[in-house]
Design a protein that fits this description.
Order of helices and strands of chain A: HHHHEEEEHHEEEEHHHHH
Radius of gyration of chain A: 29 Å
Largest sheet of chain A: 4 strands, antiparallel
Oligomer: heterodimer
Distance between the termini of chain B: 49 Å
CATH architecture of the largest domain in chain B: 3-Layer(aba) Sandwich
Structural class of chain B: alpha/beta
Radius of gyration of chain B: 21 Å
CATH class of one domain in chain A: Mainly Alpha
Largest sheet of chain B: 6 strands, mixed
Order of helices and strands of chain B: HHEEEHEHEHEEEEHEHEHEEHHHHHH
CATH architecture of one domain in chain A: Orthogonal Bundle
Number of helices of chain B: 14
Helix content of chain B: 25-40%
Number of domains of chain B: 2
CATH class of the largest domain in chain B: Alpha Beta
Number of helices of chain A: 11
Shape of chain A: extended
Strand content of chain A: 5-15%
Largest interface: A-B, 58 and 58 residues
Strand content of chain B: 15-25%
CATH topology of one domain in chain A: MetI-like fold
CATH superfamily of the largest domain in chain B: Periplasmic binding protein-like II
Number of strands of chain B: 13
């Protein structure tokens, strides 16, 4: 005899005003509506105020002639360029200072972090002193120190220090000869790219071979040969298509060649040394986080301390190091806006400074500047998150 | 596009407040003081002295407005503003008026939503170099490094002048006037450029003022004057006529010392209207009848203010020049107070 299982009596549905699901939806809708209404009010109010005061608005100003010069620009820029182009120049200068700062800060930070853990007493104490001193002084003060220390130490252009024959150091910057590529230089570029691709391929092949047979291959020197040798070969074949533009003292300053302005040097040095202290502490904490058993096992297998650090400890430490390292990179990028204090033409000085003053359109300009920093920061953190995933230990 | 603009605006919306509308005169009368935007320290124009009191001809304009509106020239609070933030501070209502050696230009009068209430100093841009460079004229400055203050007409005029004369220069742009002067003094640049009055004022702050020379060329017109916001005609009139009252007082020979006596005994109709004995000039402006009398007794007339802070007897040592009265060949000309 089959027992028929019937459904239990249908659960009594509560009235709609007591149903948790409906209440949740209702309150979320109310909050969302309030937020939307609030934002709409703010937007409408701002537009109304701007119009009633007769303040210009809109993005048409980006096509107006700028009328001012910029002291350092990696792309062509003159007084007749537009405000939009000035924006691009500012963005490029910001990216330049941030990229070089990140690179130098990472190297310096890793070195100091490892030095602080060194068994050499003097080395670890010097590293500790460096970290403690530079970490606790505000960055703006350090920036002023480097800028005025750099400025005052250097002579005027007429008394420049001459290095290696054609490099001139004075308080307007370091003037060096710049290469002017002639026709036929593209072959050298192509050879350079080919060298890089070949290096990657060689490294992959060498790794596979090492895992299969245990034999090592001198990848580093091969890479050096490929990356330097192939372009050199191409240059010889095309007859060295490179002319040099030498700096010469004409009147007040050096003309010709490329000038590294002291504002740029001061900003890069200040940013790197300051951020390196934080990176050093992060690296130190990452290395200490790796169990000491790993190091002992590596020593037991006969590995020297150098390769142990490089092959066993650091790859595991990277899991702990990378997330806070991302924050430090973002800090460095945002701290580069201090350039406005020392006349380095980054986006804050050029766009949210001069252009803002000339056009008066504070809302659009600050919005664009904020969007620029937001984009840069999001790109950096996206890249670091991808790298973090790649470095994650795959558990078996 | 409007919505996109508006969304961007919402992000920076705290800059613009809703209270910056017409009615500044009422606001000032109810709160009891004038909020005056001045420079961060320009000798002769707006500079704190040893005791921390602000002095200068720009400061005197603000004090004149306070004397006219509130009857007491000391009821002013000062906000030091850099060249970069001065207009935003005025637009957003943070200050009631700007008296900060600001040049009157078309773009500022229109696109920035401001009104210029007159000219209290006619100036022009010049250059200052070290004497030992041996430069006698601005036309010899090709290829020089020039220190300049950010976001000013100075920056634009500099570019225009060098371009018009086929010369090149390297700009070094700072935010604060003090930083510009410090960099020039340290030798980072060969030339310092700003209005001639500014050059005279800042030269005092250099390590060795006598080692610097101001070149003879004047490359632009820089009419400096007080500024108020768009959309507030009554306040605009008050500030404008306070400045004119100072000039009119000098034209009629009324000084802070003889104002009381002139008010009691003068038969000159101009003087009687100015000092409130006849007519209802004050009522038309929304002020008391002794608005101009308070200005002249508490602040002085235009000539007294000029001589006290920037005249030939001061450290700046500037002649009246273009700022003399129209009767003496200058450009200071008060509109008739009638």
């Amino acid at each position: 005899m089959a027992v028929e299982l019937t459904d239990a009596a249908p659960r009594a549905r509560p009235p709609f005003y007591n149903d948790p699901r409906i209440r949740a939806i209702f309150f979320q809708a109310v909050v969302l509506g309030a937020v939307l209404l609030g934002s709409l009010y703010l937007v409408h109010n701002t537009i109304r105020n701007l119009e009633s005061q007769g303040i210009a608005s809109g993005f048409d100003f980006l096509n107006t002639t700028a009328g001012f010069s910029i002291s350092m620009s990696l792309i062509d820029y003159s007084q007749q360029s537009t405000y939009g182009r000035a924006f691009v120049v500012g963005v490029i200068n910001t990216i330049l200072v941030s990229a070089i700062g990140v690179f130098l800060a990472t190297i310096l930070g890793f070195l100091i972090g490892v030095a602080r853990l060194s068994p050499n007493w003097l080395l670890s104490k010097i590293a500790a002193a460096y970290v403690e001193v530079l970490r606790n002084i505000p960055l703006l003060l350090q920036l002023f120190f480097w800028y005025f220390a750099v400025l005052r130490a250097l002579p005027s252009p007429r008394n420049s220090v001459q290095l290696f024959g054609s490099f001139f150091l004075n308080n307007r910057g370091l003037s060096s000869p710049s290469p002017v590529p002639q026709a036929g230089f593209t072959l050298v570029w192509v050879a350079f790219v080919v060298g890089i691709v070949a290096t990657i391929a060689v490294r992959r092949w060498a790794k596979k071979r090492q895992e299969a047979t245990g034999q090592q291959f001198p990848v580093f020197f091969t890479a050096l040969g490929l990356i330097l040798g192939l372009p050199l070969l191409a240059a010889i074949v095309t007859g060295f298509p490179l002319k040099w533009d030498y700096p010469e003292l004409k009147g007040f300053n050096f003309v010709g060649g490329v000038v590294l302005i002291p504002e740029f040097v001061a900003l890069v040095v200040a940013l790197s040394t300051y951020t390196a202290t934080f990176i050093a502490e992060i690296v130190r904490s990452g290395i200490l986080a790796v169990s000491h058993g790993q190091t002992e096992a590596a020593y037991a297998l006969g590995l020297r301390p150098g390769p142990t650090l490089r092959l066993v400890v650091i790859p595991q430490a990277l899991r702990v190091i990378i997330p806070p390292l991302t924050s430090q990179y973002l800090n460095l990028t945002k701290n580069s806006s201090l350039a406005a204090a020392i006349a380095y033409p980054d986006i804050v000085l050029v766009f949210a400074g001069t252009v803002l003053m000339q056009t008066g359109q504070a809302v659009e300009i600050i919005g664009m500047t904020m969007a620029c920093y937001l984009t840069l920061s999001l790109l950096i953190s996206a890249f670091m998150n991808w790298y973090n995933k790649k470095m994650a230990l795959v558990e078996r | 596009m409007k919505v996109l603009k508006g969304l961007l605006a919402a992000a920076a919306v705290t800059v613009i407040s809703t209270a910056a509308m017409a009615g500044t005169l009422d606001d000032v009368q109810s709160k009891g003081f004038v909020q005056c935007g001045v420079s961060q320290g320009l000798p002769g124009f707006s500079n704190p002295d040893q005791q921390g009191n602000w002095t200068g001809i720009d400061v005197d304009v603000c004090r004149a407005v306070a004397a006219a509106v509130l009857g007491d020239a000391s009821k002013v609070k000062f906000t030091p503003l850099s060249a970069k933030e001065r207009f935003t501070a005025l637009q957003s209502g943070e200050v009631d008026m700007l008296s900060r050696n600001t040049t009157w230009t078309l773009v500022r009068d229109t696109a920035l939503g401001l009104n210029f209430a007159g000219v209290n100093y006619y100036d022009g841009q010049g250059f200052m170099v070290r004497k030992d460079l041996g430069v006698k004229s601005a036309l010899e400055l090709n290829g020089a490094s020039v220190c300049v203050n950010i976001g000013t007409t100075t920056e634009l005029n500099l570019s225009d002048y060098f371009r018009a004369n086929g010369m090149k220069f390297n700009p070094v742009v700072f935010e604060k006037a003090d930083e510009v002067v410090a960099a020039y003094d340290a030798g980072r640049c060969d030339v310092y450029t700003t209005d001639q009055s500014g050059l005279a004022a800042q030269r005092i702050k250099l390590k060795d003022p006598s080692a610097h020379v101001i070149l003879p060329e004047i490359i632009s017109k820089e009419p400096l004057g007080p500024v108020v916001r768009h959309g507030d005609d009554q306040w605009f009139d008050v500030v404008k006529w306070s400045l004119y009252a100072m000039v009119e007082a000098e034209e009629d020979g009324v000084t802070s010392k003889n104002a009381a006596e002139m008010k009691a005994s003068s038969e000159n109709p101009n003087v009687r209207r100015l000092l409130g004995v006849e007519g209802d000039m004050g009522k038309n402006l929304g002020l008391n009848d002794d608005w101009a009398y308070n200005i002249v007794t508490q602040v002085g007339n235009y000539g007294e203010s000029f001589a006290r802070y920037v005249g030939p007897q001061t450290a700046l040592g500037l002649e009246r020049g273009l700022n003399a009265l129209w009767k003496d060949g200058g450009l200071q000309y008060a509109m008739p107070i009638r």
